[in-house]
UniProtKB/TrEMBL annotation:
PANTHER family the UniProt entry points to: SLR1174 PROTEIN (PTHR36832:SF1), SLR1174 PROTEIN-RELATED (PTHR36832)
Residues that span the membrane, as ranges: 117-136, 142-166, 178-200, 233-255
Superkingdom, taxonomy of origin: Bacteria
Keywords from the named record: Membrane, Transmembrane, Transmembrane helix
InterPro entries: ABC-2_transporter-like
Stated name of the protein: ABC-2 family transporter protein
A Pfam family reported for this protein in Swiss-Prot or TrEMBL: ABC2_membrane_6
């Protein structure tokens, strides 16, 4: 029974897309357009130069394209299923999360795992196509590939907790749509989604080092393209693991406090 509950929770959001072929077609087209535009942009930026901010043209293009593909890991339309924390708080239905057989924190984790596995299928498919087409460069070695996979796993773990904190803020705010958009922009900016952090000023890079955002994407992709050497991989992986532990403890505390704010009428 527990396995059945876990399976049902994990497939909530993916089913929303699998049962809507036009939506999947739109996702495929948007992803293809993003990859082509990013590839064209970075090749154009490097047309008159060889190396910038320690990155060659091929490294920069590979980083940017992989960042686009990695965005599919959690970029699913939760609003279509009306199962986001923000929607539940708005409609007063969050109380049902506390009446289900699964605790809310476990349900949230299982649903996120299903979303990431579904997104991983998109990302791996796109990666395989880009690799065959020569859009991205392969890892420099088997060791670099292994470190990248481990770092990416830790990065997605950190991202899960970052997104969880954003959702948990809904328990303490009445209207937080604008705040969520601002925080999501900060997450994408500081994690290197828009551009590698190496292109930003030194003070910006130093500031971001004290935040968990770059551990989600910048570190794994920098290891992949070789901007962070393998000799520094152990330190970077330990930093990512430390963020996982710290955020896990923090979100566990927030779950306990959030439960005290839920009343029988919901909201």
């Amino acid at each position: 029974m527990a396995v059945l509950h876990a399976w049902r929770a994990a497939r909530v959001t993916p089913l929303g897309e699998l049962n809507a072929p036009p939506r999947m077609t739109a996702v495929a087209l948007r992803l293809a357009v993003q990859v082509v535009l990013v590839w064209s942009l970075w090749r154009g930026l490097y047309a008159q130069t060889g190396t910038t901010a320690g990155l060659s043209r091929d490294q920069a293009v590979t980083y940017a394209v992989l960042a686009v593909l990695a965005s599919r890991l959690r970029e699913l339309d939760q609003y279509a299923g009306r199962d986001t924390v923000l929607q539940h708080m708005h409609f007063g239905t969050i109380v049902y999360w506390y009446l289900r057989p699964l605790p809310p924190q476990r349900y949230y984790a299982l649903r996120a795992a299903g979303e990431q596995l579904y997104g991983l299928a998109w990302a791996l498919t796109g990666y395989a196509i880009c690799l065959v087409a020569g859009v991205v460069e392969p890892p420099a070695s088997a060791g670099a590939a292994g470190v990248f996979v481990l770092s990416m796993l830790l990065g997605q773990w950190v991202l899960y907790y970052v997104m969880l904190v954003l959702d948990q803020l809904c328990f303490w705010t009445v209207r937080n749509t604008a705040a969520m958009l601002i925080l999501m922009f900060a997450q994408n900016l500081l994690s290197g989604v828009y551009a590698p952090l190496w292109f930003f000023p030194d003070w910006f890079v130093t500031m971001s080092a004290f935040l968990p955002f770059q551990a989600t994407l910048s570190v794994p992709l920098s290891l992949y393209v070789g901007r962070i050497p393998l000799s520094d991989a152990a330190f970077q992986l330990s930093v990512q693991a430390a963020w996982v532990v710290a955020l896990a403890l923090f979100t566990r505390l927030l779950w306990r406090r959030a439960a005290r704010r839920v009343i029988s009428q919901g909201g």
